[in-house]
Amino acid sequence: MLDTAVDTIPLERLERRSCAKWTHYPEGVLPLWVAEMDLPIAAVIREVIKAQVDSHDLGYPMKGGAPGMCEALIERVSRYGLNISADGVLHLASTVAGINLAARAFSEPGDEVLLLTPLYPPFKSSLELTKRVPVEVELVDDGAGYAIDFEALQAAVTPTTRMIMLCNPHNPLGRVFTSDELRGLADFALRNDLMVVAYELHADLMFEGRHVPIASLDEEIAARTVTLYGPTKAFNIPGLNVSFALAGNLELLERMRAAGGGLAGGPNRLAQVATLAAYTEGDDWLADTLGLLAANRDRLQRFVDEKLPNVRLHAPQGTYLAWLDLRETGLGDEPAKALVERAKVGLNEGAEFGRGGAGFARLNFATSPEILEQALARLHSAIG
């Protein structure tokens, strides 16, 4: 039985999966794209889901969720210095739904929202869907990594700017913003009277140090911040659809509820018991998983440095996502498209992540070391 992430899952079993990740590309392509892991689910999560099904208990969820779930969530985020009450939790079916609700709750059609790009595509698409105006402020590669251009950020503010949406740890860059950077963003938001929506879904996937929620800096920034958080990335249960919006200012969550108009559902029973198990019994599994991910990250970085001289990569500080600069490889503005054909490796196209993304690709290294080695060998043959 596969009980820990380090056991991994053989390629032939992964190829039989019917999920989007393993059916999107033609047969023979190694899919290292969508942000989910090719690793076993924690045994504690499997057991509680099986027990729920075996007991034929799939009725409607209780108000407030499974007993103990909210308390486990509150305890977990308190580890990061984010202190909230049970009333400060809005249950959601997905974090993307949280982005959409926040856009509707804290701005009007035609208002502008600042994004630090390149960025996870649903930020921009959610804003466009709700008739808000995404304003992309490109993160700057200073040679050592990506940094916030605070002058450009301030220059982007107009009388119709209402909000800044922050992704930390950052998808797709893998950046973890420092306390000083977060303080700078908080001061920027306060100075310009902006709401902050902080997407912190990868908070549990840090390779060094401890995650710092921007809402934990002080009461003033907490009063205008909604934090989006959940177990799906860290515990590899994205298809269970569970997320939470967290706020110390309860009015913010009320506005989000009202923006949903009764149409924004919460997590189902299986997602709730999985979340409870993850947050109360899943830390050993997560530690094993982080060890494997760190080894894969280091292997990928060494390979790029030693074997792919025309490719640049800043080692991710969090997440399991790597942002490959392929602009010097001759693959053009859509290198991922070319690599499906030339290398039989499926990556995310960088241009889909907005300003600063053309010529890049996102690689998901949350797979077995054996599959990663196969993918690296194929990339070397195509562009080495």
Q: Can you tell me about this structure?
A:
This protein folds into 2 domains: 5-41 and 283-383, Aspartate Aminotransferase, domain 1 (Alpha-Beta Complex); 53-281, Aspartate Aminotransferase, domain 2, CATH 3.40.640. It is an alpha/beta fold. The chain starts with 10 loop residues before the first helix and ends with a helix. The model has no long low-confidence stretch (mean pLDDT 96). It has 14 helices and 14 strands.
Summarize this entry quickly.
The protein contains 14 helices and 14 strands.
List keywords for this structure.
single chain, 384 residues, alpha/beta, Aspartate Aminotransferase, domain 1, Aspartate Aminotransferase, domain 2, 2 domains, 7-stranded mixed β-sheet, 3-stranded antiparallel β-sheet, 38% helix, globular
Class computed from helices, strands and strand pairing? alpha/beta
- What is the third-level CATH name, the topology of the largest domain? Aspartate Aminotransferase, domain 2
Helical stretch tally: 14
- What count of domains describes the coordinates? 2
Q: In percent, how much strand structure appears in the residues?
A: 5-15%
Mean pLDDT: 96
The stretches of 5 or more residues where confidence is low (pLDDT under 50) are none
What would the principal axes of the Cα set say about the shape? globular
Give the end-to-end Cα distance, rounded to a whole number of Å: 38 Å
Radius of gyration: 20 Å
* CATH class descriptor name of the largest domain: Alpha Beta
Q: What CATH architecture of the largest domain do you see?
A: 3-Layer(aba) Sandwich
